[in-house]
Design a protein that fits this description.
- With 154 residues, the chain is an all-alpha fold.
- The protein is 56% helix and 3% strand.
- It has two domains: 73 residues, no CATH class; 52 residues.
- Strands 1-2 form a two-stranded antiparallel sheet.
- The two termini are 65 Å apart.
- This is Large ribosomal subunit protein mL59 domain-containing protein.
- It comes from Saitoella complicata (strain BCRC 22490 / CBS 7301 / JCM 7358 / NBRC 10748 / NRRL Y-17804).
- One of its GO terms (cellular component) is mitochondrial large ribosomal subunit.
Length: 154
């Protein structure tokens, strides 16, 4: 049947698919849902046991009802009754937000910063510790400091 063709009200009932007829006979849209019947689209709590029971119509069956009602223009009535209500926005899974990376990758910058901080005053410490070896080590250390600084700038 083509979409959204106006159909006379008396013929509409004969054209509706069987699941829609069954639904509208059980839950007429003009009447509120009785208190003794559970809401067809929502969970309800059993008063005796306190357990949460599933809705009468699952999400898949709600979608089927809406798809069958859409050509007749009745999907709005189902949505007003609460079919396919948004389940709320859930947080994305932990790994989808940002990849955690390996520990060595996560701590690389802090380790390099510690090294550069430790090496900055090292030439003076070596001179104070052993003046004879200080000259050779100070020159080698100055070259290492330059290499580390160049690596951390990248």
């Amino acid at each position: 049947m083509p979409k959204n063709i106006p159909v006379p009200r008396d013929r509409l009932v004969s054209l509706l698919p069987q699941p829609l007829l069954r639904f509208f006979s059980r839950y007429p849209p003009s009447q509120p849902i009785p208190a003794d019947k559970p809401h067809p689209f929502e969970f309800h709590i059993n008063p005796l046991s306190g357990n949460r029971n599933d809705p009468v119509y699952s999400r898949r069956r709600q979608a089927d009802l809406i798809n069958k009602a859409r050509p007749f223009g009745l999907d709005g009535i189902l949505k007003e009754m609460g079919a396919l209500r948004d389940m709320g926005s859930s947080r994305p899974m932990k790994g989808l937000i940002k990849w955690k990376r390996h520990k060595s990758e996560r701590t690389y910058k802090s380790r390099m910063k510690k090294r550069t901080d430790a090496l900055e005053g090292m030439a003076d410490k070596i001179k104070a510790w052993n003046p004879a070896k200080a000259e050779g080590k100070a020159q080698r250390l100055a070259g290492k400091e330059a290499n580390i600084k160049a690596a951390t700038r990248e």
